[in-house]
Amino acid sequence: MNYWELDVILGTSFINMYVKCGRIQDSLFLFLTMKDKNVFTWNSIIKGLAMDKNVEKALWWFSRMKHEKGIKPDEVTLIVVSTKYQTLRLFGRSFSAFGSFKRGHGSHKGDAFLSLVKVYGELFWLVVELMGTRNG
């Protein structure tokens, strides 16, 4: 059987298509067989896993992404990852992701900043909830 090699743009588009169709295993297979990947390719697979409720796998792929030569997480990566850490109530890791992003990029913009505000808000309500349980 002959296979043809996908370039980054077409491969990333197929990964997005598979994710939107709920075919996560196909998107992972395609991701793993792609020779070249960029930040959009990585974001697609991380976001797809997160959307499919595979939060731990999404965060595992994020950790691999950080060690990939020439690949630097962007604001989309930050938003997806911090939201998933928040879902797991791993607030320290979420703040750590923001800190490492700020060191690498200098500042947060727009949606990334709003995502940080959501993390603080969720943490605030968790503390209020815990205090209410102790006092009640």
TrEMBL record:
<feature type="repeat" description="PPR">
    <location>
        <begin position="38"/>
        <end position="73"/>
    </location>
</feature>
<dbReference type="GO" id="GO:0009451">
    <property type="term" value="P:RNA modification"/>
</dbReference>
<dbReference type="Pfam" id="PF13041">
    <property type="entry name" value="PPR_2"/>
</dbReference>
<protein>
    <submittedName>
        <fullName>Pentatricopeptide repeat-containing protein</fullName>
    </submittedName>
</protein>
<dbReference type="InterPro" id="IPR046960">
    <property type="entry name" value="PPR_At4g14850-like_plant"/>
</dbReference>
<dbReference type="InterPro" id="IPR002885">
    <property type="entry name" value="PPR_rpt"/>
</dbReference>
<dbReference type="InterPro" id="IPR011990">
    <property type="entry name" value="TPR-like_helical_dom_sf"/>
</dbReference>
<dbReference type="GO" id="GO:0003723">
    <property type="term" value="F:RNA binding"/>
</dbReference>
<keyword id="KW-0677">Repeat</keyword>
